[in-house]
Specification:
Elements (H helix, E strand, L loop, with lengths): L4 E6 L4 H18 L6 H9 L5 E8 L2 E9 L7 E7 L8 H13 L4 E6 L3 H10 L2 E12 L13 E5 L6 H11 L11 H8 L9 E6 L2 E11 L5 E9 L8 H15 L4 E7 L3 H9 L3 E11 L5
Parallel strand pairs: 4-5, 10-11
Antiparallel strand pairs: 1-2, 2-3, 3-4, 5-12, 6-11, 6-12, 7-8, 8-9, 9-10
């Protein structure tokens, strides 16, 4: 007997729905070895903001076999979607059905979706559905057991840790200046910051702020991913445009790497735009190597 197949759309998940999506994400990540959904989608999923999100669930009978998270607060490029299909139910048309419904839900806006790990099957599906490849994000990794250069700060610059409840406004202003042209990081607001600093992984001791004459000029926010063993991350490094070119970015990066190594971590990762050759060179000189690629695809959207 053939199981009933259906797509369900909701602006809010109940407890059972959250549990089912969580199990689906865990199964996919265990098989694929890469994230099923990006951090922004996971944060929004946890906050369950009904005004911003559509949850598209693919079911066979009572079993959840696919999920698409559609962010209906489109940025300059369009609405963002993240999709996952259970490994045991792939090649059955679920990927296409879920993404087509995501495009419908986001209409008339364009839709952007990440392929984590740049899987060839995802590339074929994207072409078939009319998505164009628009962006590549490289994952780089480094062994922290290899020697690290010492930290050498530019003249007049000091480092200190982020102070929750005191530094948020100044950091948001600096981040907006440092990432004015970045499609995601430049749009981080107070709500986004609060969600991240409220996460279990947040550690203010690993969030370094650089000051010159009492003014913030740069930062390095590190992150530790739980696991066996845990892995550190150069979560984000930002430098005020007026302070660039003096070695501050390298110094901030090294400060974070020393911190992660001193915590006993043996490996660190980071993400960098594939077309950002200057940044890639900086990281390669610090011993990072390219280990994987996330690819973003864009659908032009449907008119209303």
């Amino acid at each position: 007997m053939t199981e009933r197949r259906e797509l369900q759309v909701s602006d809010r998940l109940d407890h059972a729905g959250h549990e089912a999506v969580g199990r689906l994400i865990a199964r996919a990540e265990a098989v694929d070895g890469v994230a099923a959904l990006n951090e922004q989608a996971l944060l929004a999923l946890a906050s369950d903001d009904a005004s911003q999100v559509r949850h598209v669930l693919g079911r066979e009978g009572d079993e959840l076999v696919g999920y698409v998270h559609v962010d209906l607060s489109p940025g300059a490029e369009g609405a963002a979607a993240e999709s996952v299909v259970d490994p045991d139910h792939r090649r059955r048309g679920w990927g296409g059905a879920l993404l087509r419904r995501a495009v419908e839900e986001a209409a008339p806006y364009p839709v952007l979706v990440w392929s984590h790990g740049d899987h060839p099957g995802a590339a074929r599906l994207a072409r078939r559905l009319g998505f164009a490849r628009v962006r590549d994000l490289w994952q780089l990794r480094r062994d922290l057991r290899d020697p690290l250069p010492e930290v050498s700060l530019p003249a007049g610059v000091t480092l200190r840790a982020f102070r929750p409840g005191q530094d948020e406004a100044a950091w948001l202003e600096l981040n907006a200046r440092a990432f004015a042209h970045h499609p995601e990081q430049g749009g981080v607001d107070a709500t986004d910051l609060a969600m991240r600093t409220g996460s279990e992984w947040f550690d203010p001791a690993g969030f370094f702020l650089a000051e010159r004459e009492g003014r913030l000029v740069g930062f390095h926010w590190t992150k530790v991913h739980a696991g066996d063993p845990p892995v550190g991350e150069v979560y984000v490094v930002g430098v005020d445009p007026d302070a660039q070119g003096g070695g501050l970015g390298r110094a901030l990066t090294l400060a974070g790497l020393h911190h992660l190594r001193d915590r006993g971590l043996t490996e660190v990762l980071l993400y960098v735009e594939a077309d950002n050759a200057p940044a890639r060179r900086v990281y390669e000189r610090l011993g990072f190597r390219h280990v994987g690629t996330d690819t973003r695809y864009r659908h032009p959207g449907h008119p209303t």
